[in-house]
User: Which sequence fits this backbone?
């Protein structure tokens, strides 16, 4: 297949040219000022040719943080609906998180989780496991051998009943993820007592406090900052006590949302050179605040909460300055019935796939964000950090995962048209001029600009992990 007359993202800029794709890979790139153009035509004169009419061609988005649900939460989302939503958005790879029902903390349940996805995914999916109960090494190794991308911990609500404020448990998990060379994903939140949270909510309701602002106060930035600070201290101690290991463990902090937390992480890179930390921010923490008006406040309820404008602005400034590692949606679908409950009862989270590229690329179109920064955070760094060596770039020999973008007349985001089962969004009513005109996975079209095509071409990503010591 040949795609000609495309504005191809290559070497940090858009270049008018053509691409030859063969066997699911980018085989050859030719730019219009390249003298090899005639040779390119000679090689491929029998191939199917698509005229891109100068549309922008970008590497497929890799979203390292999503919740595809399914299993006993199929009413919220399934692998089919979730990966369709991603496919229609230029997202060609996602990582799925383990707080499923049942929780993904045993090799048996993780195998069943993967089996449920097999033949039911429109894009590629990698799986993040929960830590097995008692941090059992035998079970940990079995899970690693299934090819999971990494492990995830939720200190505020452990899915395997492990106390992550116990230093011994931190030491042990760092030892294991180092030994087996797998990343550790962290939801950075100090534990709080549910009874205390409900008491504060009751006080807030009686005082008629603004729900989203009050939610931000209850789950304050201190809770996030304090856990990152706590974990960093134990990580540094681990480094001191294990100077002979071959690789220090890769720690990835999810959905960093506050100025204080981001400041700690950015500072740590200058102060402690051996820290192997990465982090992500979400589109909603970059674009929304708790002071905005929403259809329902519960539709914008999320953990960590929407923060104040000071936090949002600090995150966005550091994105503009190239200091943010990754963008992750934290796509977290729920039924509209659940999200329509009173604020305190509604679950946290909302769908993110089908708004993410439309809104951030709109900022690119408006010159509020450099395209190279967006591509770095959305495609290149996820591939580099998590060992997806054949993805994230439009280069010869890489998987032909890409999407086509064009600028159109402004239109309004309507969640009722989402492919996701979750037909609500805090971004409802936002306007964009970005249109995803086509999405390709390994050179095969999976979205034609109007519809996700019926063939499920997605594959499960099995990471090849190895014992380091």
Assistant:
């Amino acid at each position: 297949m040949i795609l000609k007359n495309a504005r191809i993202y290559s070497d940090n800029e858009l270049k008018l040219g053509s691409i030859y794709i063969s066997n699911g890979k980018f085989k050859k790139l030719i730019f219009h000022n390249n003298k090899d153009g005639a040779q390119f035509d000679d090689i491929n004169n029998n191939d199917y040719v698509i005229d891109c009419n100068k549309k922008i061609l970008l590497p497929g988005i890799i979203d390292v943080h999503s919740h595809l649900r399914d299993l006993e939460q199929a009413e919220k989302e399934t692998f089919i609906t979730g990966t369709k939503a991603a496919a229609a958005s230029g997202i060609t790879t996602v990582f799925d998180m383990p707080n499923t029902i049942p929780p993904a903390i045993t090799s048996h349940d993780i195998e069943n989780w993967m089996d449920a996805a097999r033949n039911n995914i429109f894009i590629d999916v990698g799986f993040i496991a929960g830590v097995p109960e008692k941090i059992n090494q035998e079970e940990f190794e079995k899970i690693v051998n299934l090819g999971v991308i990494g492990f995830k911990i939720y200190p505020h609500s452990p899915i395997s009943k492990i106390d992550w404020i116990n230093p011994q448990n931190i030491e042990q998990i760092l030892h294991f993820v180092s030994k087996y060379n797998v990343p550790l994903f962290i939801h950075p939140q100090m534990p709080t007592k549910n009874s205390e949270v409900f008491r504060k909510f009751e006080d807030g309701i009686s005082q008629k406090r603004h729900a989203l602002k009050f939610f931000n106060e209850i789950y304050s930035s201190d809770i996030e900052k304090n856990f990152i600070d706590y974990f960093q201290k134990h990580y540094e101690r681990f480094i001191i006590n294990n100077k002979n290991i071959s690789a220090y463990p890769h720690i990835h902090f999810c959905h960093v949302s506050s100025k204080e937390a981001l400041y700690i992480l950015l500072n740590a890179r200058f102060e402690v050179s051996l820290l192997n930390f990465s982090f992500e921010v979400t589109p909603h923490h970059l674009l929304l605040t708790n002071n905005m008006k929403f259809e329902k406040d519960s539709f914008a309820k999320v953990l960590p909460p929407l923060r104040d404008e000071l936090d949002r602005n600090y995150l966005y400034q550091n994105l503009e300055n190239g200091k943010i590692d990754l963008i992750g949606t934290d796509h977290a679908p729920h039924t509209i019935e659940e999200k329509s409950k009173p604020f305190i009862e509604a679950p946290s989270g909302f769908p993110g796939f089908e708004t993410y590229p439309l809104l951030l690329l709109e900022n690119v179109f408006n010159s509020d964000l450099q395209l190279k920064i967006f591509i770095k955070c959305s495609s290149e760094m996820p591939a580099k950090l998590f060992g997806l060596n054949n993805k994230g770039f439009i280069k010869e020999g890489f998987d032909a995962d890409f999407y086509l973008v064009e600028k159109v007349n402004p239109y309004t985001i309507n969640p009722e048209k989402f492919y996701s089962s979750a037909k609500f969004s805090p971004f409802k009513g936002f306007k964009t001029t970005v249109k995803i005109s086509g999405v390709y996975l390994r050179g095969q079209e999976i979205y034609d600009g109007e519809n996700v095509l019926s063939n499920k071409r997605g594959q499960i990503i099995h990471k090849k992990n190895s014992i380091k010591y």
Observations:
- The CA atoms of residues 147 and 462 lie 4 Å apart.
- The chain has a mean pLDDT of 93.
- The chain has two domains: 2-51, 59-391+407-433+445-461.
